[in-house]
Amino acid sequence: MPIKRLFVANRGEIAVRIIRTAKALGIETVLGVSAADRGSLGAEMASRTVVLGPAPSAKSYLDVNLIVHAAKATGCDALHPGYGFLSEKPVLSKMCAEEGIIFVGPRAETIESLGDKLGGRAMARAAGVQTVPGTDHIATLEDAKQAASQLGYPVVMKASAGGGGRGMFKAEDEAALDASFERASREALAAFGDSRLYMERFVTRARHVEVQILGDGEGKVIHFGERDCTVQRRYQKLIEEAPATAVPEATRRRLHDAAVRLTSHARYRNAGTVEFLYDVDRDDFYFIEVNSRIQVEHPVSEETTGEDLIAWQLRVAAGEGLHLEQEQIKVTGHAIEIRVNAEDPSNDYAPSPGRITDWAPPTGVGIRLDTHARAGYLVPPFYDSMIGKLIVRGADRAEALDRLQAAIAEFRLVGPKTTLPLAAFVVAHPDFRANRITTRWLEDLGPFNAAREV
Amino acid sequence: MKGKTEDIATLVELFRSSGWDEMHVEIDGVQLFLSTDPNARLDDGSLPRSAPEVRAAPVVAASTATVSAAAVSAAAPAPAAAAAQEVPAHWIAVSAPNLGTFYRSPKPGAPPFVEVGMRVEAATDVCLLEVMKLFTTVKAGHGGTVRRVCVNDADMVEHGQTLFYIDPS
């Protein structure tokens, strides 16, 4: 059943991105906005815009009843959730199914089972995909030593009842394990009323690598290569690129296989991303989780494969099937994306909403900007701080980096403080150029100072 | 309205002494946008193109020598019939708190909550808004006489859309 009218349940650049592709496919769009976004670019581009509620997300973009009601009342036959907001809430997928609206994303059950960390890990193991090696409960120091020698040092002991980074003890070697095992048990008992511990391999030097997949819901899954998102701050990705040239090609092929195996096992429907922790020293990887939606960084995969992932989402959702074979996906060149956020990196990334008074983004060969901003746009204080994503492509990583550096320098954006100076700093940094960074690299550098800008 | 005018005067005073460049507040559907830039416009004035802007709720223009200020009422789409008609400045708009389906009666077949010409108090229920089978009542918010019903029964309304006009005099 072809989609005639699509409800866009999001805002910002991704709403613009979805509307653009829908238009190209001849699909009408209805955008549901909050009162704060009624004058937004997406609202101008959509075939129709309806105001859902006031500015706060809880009364607009996060109100699932309001969203589904609006989609029904405006005669939409499909709904695209974008990313964030309700995109990974099983209830939205479920309600759409109940109301006869095509949900452009996975089934509610899939989102639910993958959304739970343990559920995701169980599914990975069932599909033969490796998670971080670890043990069950460890009762004695002797057991701990034996387990550690099997896993390989360093290891981390975790309280079974713990969570959120509490009750964790790292041991670099056997002597450290001797010294900390008793203390770890005691503290686990004191903190959680349960002394039981388990052990995991500790990955000292890690990179974040993920695989873009698309499934037909019946077990057929195609991948669009991997992305490297190692530049992070407090688990927030800042720069993403494809391919992950720091990972050997043979390992990348194993990554693709693992991602396809896992999502095929889950009979995954629509676009998704399988995230892995890459262990630099061991040249090995462990499953983290599946993100059951289109991701912020999807453009780098589009730029390296030449495929429109939103278009594929809509085709698969419409029940056209997945008329695409793996051999047709060719990764060429290199693409890097930087996130331009209205934050002040020199002031602990404090949000910096406000009006953009001057705006002249870079243009040229290999430059793409996904944004909803323009001159005079007021970055509202109610939502995430993203102004846009600058994506630059080159024949190889070096060329992409050179173009990106020039593009950032050319980017004229006056008004809110942004992460552009930080991006300029990272892109010019010898560690990033040489691609010898890890997920902790940016934070280990300490607070960012704009004066340090290269 | 008296209280509201005083509130706005206070906000303008606060804004003048704040050193801020811009302030935007929204209380009970009334938006106030203050700026030191005489050319500044709320959201660049780009309102939904799909519907003509109807003059809703009393517009309070607050301005002083040093601060260019304008109060922008909740811009709301309205049926063409109502849009064509003039709305006296002192009428007060009752607007939809969120998107939903508008019902004039408490249940099918029952008489409407209010009719044109009826006196209402601030706490009088004037209609129902339904969102996925969840019904909420909307109150008049002001005492006065119902002068106009702006939406047809069972139509979808958006947040901020004018549902009724009340004459407070």
Compile the SSE list and pairings.
The complex is a heterodimer of chains A (454) and B (169).
Chain A lengths: L4 E4 L3 H13 L3 E7 L6 H5 L2 E6 L10 H10 L4 E3 L9 H9 L3 E2 L4 H8 L1 H10 L14 H11 L3 E9 L2 E6 L2 H19 L4 E5 L4 E11 L4 E13 L2 E7 L6 H17 L3 E11 L4 E8 L6 H8 L3 H9 L16 E8 L1 E2 L5 E2 L2 E2 L2 E3 L6 E5 L6 E2 L6 E9 L2 H14 L1 E3 L5 H9 L1 H4 L7 H4 L10
Helix pairs in contact in A: 4-5, 7-8, 12-13
Chain B lengths: L1 H17 L3 E6 L2 E6 L32 E6 L6 H5 L7 E4 L4 E4 L15 E2 L4 E7 L2 E6 L4 E6 L6 E2 L4 E6 L2
Antiparallel strand pairs in B: 1-2, 2-3, 4-11, 5-7, 5-10, 6-9, 7-8, 9-11
The two chains with the largest interface, and their residue counts, are: A-B, 31 and 27 residues
Q: Helical region count of chain A?
A: 15
Strand content of chain B: 25-35%
Unreliable sequence segments of chain B: 44-82
What is the 3D form of chain B?
A: elongated
The tally of helices of chain B reads 2
Number of domains of chain A: 3
Structure description:
Chain A is of the alpha+beta class and 454 residues long. Chain A folds into three domains: 5-104, 3-Layer(aba) Sandwich (Rossmann fold); 133-201, 2-Layer Sandwich (Dna Ligase, domain 1), CATH 3.30.1490; 206-444, D-amino Acid Aminotransferase, Chain A, domain 1 (2-Layer Sandwich). Helix content of chain A is 33%, strand content 28%. In chain A, the strands form six sheets. Chain A has an eight-stranded antiparallel β-sheet with strand order 13-12-9-10-11-14-21-19, sandwiched between helices. In chain A, a hairpin with a 4-residue loop joins strand 12 (269-279) and strand 13 (284-291). The N and C termini of chain A lie far apart (53 Å). The mean pLDDT of chain A is 94. Residues 44-82 of chain B have low confidence and may be disordered. By secondary structure, chain B is an alpha+beta fold. Chain B has helices spanning 2-18, 80-84, and strands spanning 22-27, 30-35, 68-73, 92-95, 100-103, 119-120, 125-131, 134-139, 144-149, 156-157, 162-167. In chain B, strands 4-11-9-6 form a four-stranded antiparallel β-sheet, with no helix packed on it. In chain B, strand 1 and strand 2 (30-35) form a beta hairpin. The longest helix of chain B has 17 residues, at 2-18. Chain B is built from two helices and eleven strands. The relative contact order of chain B is 0.18. Chain A binds chain B through residues 32, 34-35, 38-39, 43-44, 48-55, 59-60, 63, 65-66, 68-70, 73-74, 95, 354-355, 376-378, and chain B through 22, 26, 40, 43-50, 74-75, 97-101, 130-132, 134, 156, 158-161.
